[in-house]
Amino acid sequence: MTQQSFDVERIRKDFPILTRELPGGRPLVYLDSGNSSQKPTQVIEAMREHMASHYANVGRALHVLGSESTEAYEDARSKIAAFVGAPSRDEVIFTKNASEALNLVAYSFGNPNNTDERFRLGPGDEIVISEMEHHSNIVPWQLLAQRTGATLRWFPVTDEGRLDVGGLDELVNERTKIVSIAHQSNVLGTVNSVSPILARVRQVGALMMLDASQSVPHQPVDVAELGVDFVAFTGHKMLGPSGIGVLWGRRELLDAMPPFLGGGEMIEAVWMDHSTFAPVPHKFEAGTPPIVEAVGLGAAVDYLTSIGMEEIKAHEKRLVTYALDVLQEVPGLTVIGPRTAIARGGTVSFTLEGIHPHDVGQILDDVYGIAVRVGHHCARPLHLRFGIPATTRASLYLYNTTAEIDALVRGLHHVQKVFG
Amino acid sequence: MIAESMYQELILEHYKHPQGRGLREPFDAEVHHVNPTCGDEVTMRVKLADGGKVLDVSYDGQGCSISQAAASVLHELTTGSTVEETLSVVDEFTRLMQGRGQVEPDEDVLGDAVAFAGVAKFPARVKCALLAWMAYKDAVIRSQG
């Protein structure tokens, strides 16, 4: 039934960029959505319409445009709250990207402005991440550890590309204050099982954050059901514009946290020597926010909802099942990450024996118009774990087809011919 | 079919059959350069003789065809030349690479390195081509230091 209702050809018509031609008359085969997704007309139009007819600053202008713009901005917040099952719309904070959301939370720990016991962090305390993290979920915690003298620890990754939770009870212990891991790996495609880790986190009284940048765009995510404390994700990977990310946090924790950036609109009252702060979410939204971007992201979640996140997930599962089958028939190709479509998303990273990913990506692009990402995908420690400097990554989304995967395979055979 | 012009036969040949690869003794200076965006790396040793002659340039590394072929071509062009000559090749090669494909290469100076002219049109790959040459320049300066 779902297979019939999901019409990828109809969906592709919503994405103008997919019909463009590359120099030399090559068609575009876009397999880089894990890096950033393309935008449907509905998002482009919503942003254009806002700028053409409703634009003004938000939250501070009393005129008609000011109130229309504010309404659109706040309406986007409500849409996103509903999209991820946030119990309250005030728990949705707009940031610049997922990195800012992660930094915001990291900044609240070991901060003299935060007297809440749960955020106290110093020598002897521990922060836990994993070896499969994007740099944005590594570096903020490294900086925090350096600032406070706390110890940074991490879950290892198995040869199959799964989180190794064998040492969970030792790794997450009474010294642990925060555990922050990826919901879905941007390299391996692995979807991590949250509940066993969360159960241990609760046992020791720590907090838990998920980097959901790669999961929210691709599967239904309900933050209340997940039960964690913080979730970060980003707009541009889920059909929305760049320049906007989201932090969801439990209200009671957000209330306890100190402001991250200071500036306009995050205050209640300001004197020359001190200030009091607005309630959440505005406490964390200093300065003019990404207004048009929020409107665009609101339109993106409307679009995703109209297609259905379950349907999108099922489509990507069909695609990745196909991709894993045909890619593993390419001689010398090794998939880095789970080799079956179980508990994994539509991101497939691989190596080709004897050929550097930069050469693979260059030939794919220039001969076939196939856009993949090559390099360490902002996850260098994970590549070090597998003893490789880089991989080639194809990341799939709702608008991709099996014909595009066939094109990738043809491209890889050609790459092998050039370097053979 | 743009990139294949970047992958000149000569570059592919050097990539598949690198010349002078492997670190050798004796040497005056050893340097290690990396390209943080793609993980290409090269370790290079330089042995100079009195009178400014380059006795040996030995290297090891890993990375894409462009970065590794560049090291192989560099070995051929530098070994047996004078420091002065090789530094003018470095300068001309750098000028070519940073020219966004608009610079007419001086073949007399560059020799086989002219095969890399096509790389200049790909800003993301220029650093790959320059890696070994920057390492060489660094090693020469340290040898003379």
From TrEMBL, chain A:
It is an enzyme of class 2 (transferase). It catalyses: (sulfur carrier)-H + L-cysteine = (sulfur carrier)-SH + L-alanine. GO terms for molecular function: cysteine desulfurase activity; pyridoxal phosphate binding. Keywords: Pyridoxal phosphate, Transferase. InterPro entries: Aminotrans_V_dom, Aminotrans_V_PyrdxlP_BS, Cys_dSase_SufS, PyrdxlP-dep_Trfase, PyrdxlP-dep_Trfase_major, PyrdxlP-dep_Trfase_small. Its EC number is 2.8.1.7. Its cofactor is pyridoxal 5'-phosphate. Gene3D superfamilies: Aspartate Aminotransferase, domain 1, Type I PLP-dependent aspartate aminotransferase-like (Major domain). Residues 29-408 form the Aminotransferase class V domain. GO terms for biological process: cysteine metabolic process. Pfam families: Aminotran_5. Catalyzes the removal of elemental sulfur and selenium atoms from L-cysteine, L-cystine, L-selenocysteine, and L-selenocystine to produce L-alanine. NCBIfam families: sufS (TIGR01979). Belongs to the class-V pyridoxal-phosphate-dependent aminotransferase family. Csd subfamily. PANTHER family: CYSTEINE DESULFURASE, CYSTEINE DESULFURASE 1, CHLOROPLASTIC. This is Cysteine desulfurase. It comes from Microbispora oryzae.
From TrEMBL, chain B:
Residues 6-128 form the NIF system FeS cluster assembly NifU N-terminal domain. InterPro entries: NIF_FeS_clus_asmbl_NifU_N. One of its GO terms (biological process) is iron-sulfur cluster assembly. One of its GO terms (molecular function) is iron-sulfur cluster binding. It comes from the Bacteria. SUPFAM superfamilies: SufE/NifU. PANTHER family: IRON-SULFUR CLUSTER ASSEMBLY ENZYME NIFU HOMOLOG. This is SUF system NifU family Fe-S cluster assembly protein. It comes from Microbispora oryzae.
